[in-house]
């Protein structure tokens, strides 16, 4: 078992190679594994270079504690702005991270407990096999703070569940229980919490001893068949989100969320 270097984000995630499996775990449980700019950059770096380690046959992506990932860490936004990190730079990092997960040459297995919200939905769905505890949920919460889905969520949700379901999730910003997400084809399977780890490990064991090149080409073909609109969605999301991140509605939405009150958006 070896630890992968992730010096650029020492508290954002851990990456440990366990035989043929790379286990990537978001490690910000006090913030429900919300991720900041540095974490997005480092995750993009990690997934972008995983193909250089031929011993890795599968990746498990999970969150420490009771949640997978509740999206971008808005509490860290002022400090990032002081560093000169603009909305466009943030969106580039988010898009690169998601694209790197999708393009990883080995299968990525996502394990969801609790919440997968905001960019956490896109990060989760970027995996090839997505397993969730039945009491977990997906939440495209962007509209609730004056934003729009990003990280390719528009393309990935629509590709799996159709335009009508994607519109409902994106425009209403309501929780989708994991069992319903499985029924709609958004995730691979929802299982009782007590069975989640065993379910994930069964899939991982099979992948870890499979033919690496065949797995890579199969994954690539599936992505080309189902995610041909991903780059278009990422570009549209970057343009729209960069505008919205500087809007009065987002300022109101973020403040309301952090102070736990209902937002009052402008006319």
Automatic annotation (TrEMBL):
Any GO MF annotation of the entry: isomerase activity
Record's keyword annotation contains Ribosomal protein: no
Keyword Phosphoprotein found: no
Keywords: Isomerase
Catalytic activity, EC: 5.3.3.18
CDD domains linked: crotonase-like
Protein name (database record): 1,2-epoxyphenylacetyl-CoA isomerase
């Amino acid at each position: 078992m070896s630890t992968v270097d992730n010096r650029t984000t020492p508290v954002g995630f851990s990456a440990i190679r366990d035989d043929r499996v790379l286990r990537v775990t978001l490690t910000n449980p006090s913030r429900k594994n919300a991720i900041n700019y540095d974490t997005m950059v480092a995750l993009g770096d990690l997934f972008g270079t995983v193909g250089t380690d031929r011993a890795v046959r599968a990746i498990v992506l999970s969150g420490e504690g009771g949640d997978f990932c509740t999206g971008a860490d808005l509490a860290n936004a002022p400090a990032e702005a002081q560093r000169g990190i603009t909305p466009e730079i943030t969106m580039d990092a988010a898009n690169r991270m998601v694209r790197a997960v999708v393009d990883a040459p080995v299968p990525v297995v996502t394990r969801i407990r609790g919440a997968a919200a905001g960019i956490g939905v896109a990060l989760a769905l970027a995996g090839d096999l997505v397993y969730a505890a039945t009491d977990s949920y997906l939440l495209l919460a962007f509209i609730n703070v004056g934003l729009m889905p990003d990280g390719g969520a528009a393309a990935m949700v629509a590709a799996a569940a159709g335009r009508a379901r994607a519109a409902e999730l994106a425009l209403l910003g309501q929780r989708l229980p994991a069992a319903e997400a499985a029924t709609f084809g958004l995730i691979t399977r929802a299982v009782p919490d007590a069975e989640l780890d065993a379910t994930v490990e069964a899939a991982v064991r099979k992948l870890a001893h499979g033919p690496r090149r065949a797995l890579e080409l199969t994954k690539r073909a599936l992505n080309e068949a189902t995610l041909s609109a991903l780059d278009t969605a990422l570009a549209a999301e970057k343009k729209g989100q960069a505008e919205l991140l500087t809007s009065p509605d987002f300022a109101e939405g973020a403040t309301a969320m952090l102070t736990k009150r209902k937002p009052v958006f402008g006319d």
